[in-house]
Specification:
Layout lengths: L2 H45 L6 H7 L4 E2 L15 E8 L1 H9 L10 E9 L5 E10 L9 E7 L8 E6 L5 E7 L4 H7 L16 H4 L4 H11 L6
Parallel strand pairs: 5-7
Antiparallel strand pairs: 1-2, 2-3, 3-4, 4-5, 6-7
Helix pairs in contact: 1-3
Length: 227
């Protein structure tokens, strides 16, 4: 290979490398903005003051849409009910895997979703809030945090830690809506690790105030928590 050909080859390699780095940086920034929207959905859900109305719900939680048809039957809502839901996922990962199966370092799936039931007279019931993430580019979540309404307006949240059949470590809590301190404590999450290059290391990185409750439940159920 002569000198001119070598220069052209190195120039092409350099251009490809610059474009690749720029594309990765753009996707990483898109991932950060997606996680910020996931955090916003959790924050808006936590800020609801119960009891609330359908109008206040729609003003407080952005992006809610009616869920109708066969999909509505899978939600634990009193019948008849209107069901509203919002879901935010990592747009960077979704965009990347729409066109290719390429795995890029630091780009991994995460998702937050919230669902609400509106019963007769406009009375709103909190149905479920979920957040899941992975530690790698594998689409199967390694951890999920889930909250559901507690059937009573008194008492404390019921915490549970279990490993699903798919290997996902699931932290769940049934939350008493009528007791604001416990509602706020149970839903005190930090999702920012999902936007970092190394991602979330485990439940301790996401769950803040209620982490001792999950540790105690894991000890009682003999569930091994990751370090």
């Amino acid at each position: 290979m002569n000198r001119k050909a070598t220069v052209v080859f190195l120039l092409c390699v350099g251009v490809i490398a610059v474009v690749a780095v720029a594309a990765w940086a753009w996707l990483f920034n898109l991932q950060r903005r997606s996680v910020e929207r996931e955090e916003q959905l959790v924050r808006e859900t936590t800020q609801i003051r119960w009891p609330t109305s359908e109008a206040v719900l729609l003003q407080t939680v952005q992006g809610l849409a009616r869920i109708e048809g066969p999909d509505a039957a899978s939600y634990p809502c009193p019948s008849p009910s209107l069901i509203y839901g919002a879901s935010v996922s990592n747009r960077a990962y979704d965009l990347l895997h729409r066109f290719t199966s390429l795995q890029l370092p630091g780009i991994r799936p995460s998702q937050a979703s919230a669902f609400f039931c509106v019963w007769r007279g406009g009375q709103v019931y909190f149905s479920e809030l979920n957040f899941s993430f992975t530690r790698s580019s594998d689409a199967n979540p390694v951890m999920m945090v889930s909250f559901q309404e507690f059937p009573s307006t008194f008492g404390f949240p019921a915490f549970e830690v279990q490993v699903t059949s798919g290997g996902t470590l699931r932290y769940s809590a049934r939350v008493p809506l009528g007791y604001l301190p416990e509602w706020t404590r149970a839903l005190d999450l930090d999702l920012s690790c999902a936007a970092r290059f190394r991602g979330c290391s485990g439940g301790r990185a996401v769950i803040r105030s209620a982490w001792p409750d999950y540790e105690r439940e894991a000890l009682l159920s003999r569930t091994q928590l990751p370090e």
